[in-house]
Amino acid sequence: MRSICRIGRSYAKRLEPPNTRLINAGIVTINDMETLQACVAYENANRGRVQILRRLEQQVNEIRSQED
Questions:
Q1: For range 27-42, the mean pLDDT
Q2: Is pLDDT at 10 greater than 80 in this prediction?
């Protein structure tokens, strides 16, 4: 089982690169709702960037459409 600290670093690696192209690349590699929810929580707790939260929402919608 991964520790909370290690999990937090994983989300930071996805959401804290220096430019949005790298952040988007990290987001599109997420393929499960649990990880997306954790990334949304991480973003809300740390930065709250609307653009990133919208991109995470788009990925949620993409995963949901694939499940249908």
A1: 90
A2: no
Q: How far apart are CA 5 and CA 8, in angstroms?
A: 5
Instruction: Record the tokens describing residue 10, joined without a space.
Output: 């994983």
58: nearest Cα among 28, 18, 14, 23 = 28
∠29-52-63 over CA atoms, to 5°?
Answer: 40
Residue 6 is predicted with a pLDDT of: 45
Distance CA 15, CA 9 (A): 10
Q: Is the pLDDT of residue 30 over 60?
A: yes
Euclidean distance between CA atoms 19 and 5, whole angstroms:
24
| Overall size of the chain counted in residues | 68
